[in-house]
């Protein structure tokens, strides 16, 4: 005859929570509620300061990464603009070369680089 303390092997043992019976409102699918404790979520001042410091460090790193990304983007945009400008200038000189002598075009190119009025727009 088995003792009262031993369970048969077919019945699983529930160590998590013993059943509390049926809920009064009939909504058994809801999780059981716990008592309201207003001071339960409060943390100490030092803990809050540690969290704040960690958050500030994270934000600083995030800001730094965003700035680096923006700088890289601006650099790429500037490279594209410089290439376009050089291409336009080359095409302009090629058009001039069709009409004039090559030495005259070279002389004008060198003079344009020295021209203060043209270079002041940068």
Summarize the SSE layout with pairings:
Blueprint: H1 45-99, H2 102-114, H3 116-119
What does this structure look like?
This protein has a domain at 46-119. The chain is 59% helix and 0% strand. It has three helices and no strands. It is rod-shaped. The mean pLDDT is 83.
Number of helices: 3
Q: Report low-confidence residues grouped into runs of 5 or more.
A: none
- Total beta-strand segments: 0
Overall mean pLDDT score?
A: 83
Structural class: mainly alpha
Query: What is the global morphology?
Result: rod-shaped
Fraction in helix: 55-70%
- Percentage of residues in strands: under 5%
- List the helices and strands in order: HHH
Largest sheet: none
The span between the termini is 102 Å
Summarize the structure.
The protein starts with 44 loop residues before the first helix and ends with a helix. It is mainly alpha-helical and 122 residues long. Helices cover 59% and strands 0% of the residues.
What key phrases describe this protein's structure?
rod-shaped, mainly alpha
């Amino acid at each position: 005859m088995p003792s009262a303390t031993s369970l048969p092997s077919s019945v699983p043992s529930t160590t998590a929570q013993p059943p509390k019976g049926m809920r009064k409102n009939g909504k058994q699918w809801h999780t059981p509620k716990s008592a309201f404790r207003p001071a339960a979520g409060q943390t100490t001042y030092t803990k809050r300061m540690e969290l704040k410091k960690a958050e500030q460090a994270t934000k600083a790193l995030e800001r730094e990464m965003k700035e680096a990304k923006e700088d890289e983007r601006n650099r790429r945009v500037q490279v594209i603009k410089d290439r376009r400008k050089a291409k336009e200038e080359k095409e302009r000189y090629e058009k001039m070369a069709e009409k004039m002598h090559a030495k005259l075009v070279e002389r004008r190119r060198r003079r344009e680089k020295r021209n203060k009025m043209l270079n002041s727009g940068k």
